[in-house]
Amino acid sequence: MKMISILLALMFAVAAPAWAQVQPFPELRASIAEADAVLIATPEYTYSAPVALENALDWASRGNTQPFDGKAVAIMGAAASTLGTARAQYHLRQILVSLNAHPLNQPEVFVARANERFENGQLTDETTRKLIADQLIALKAWTACLSTRVAPNQ
Question: Is domain 3-148 in CATH 3.40.50.360, yes or no?
Answer without folding.
Answer: yes
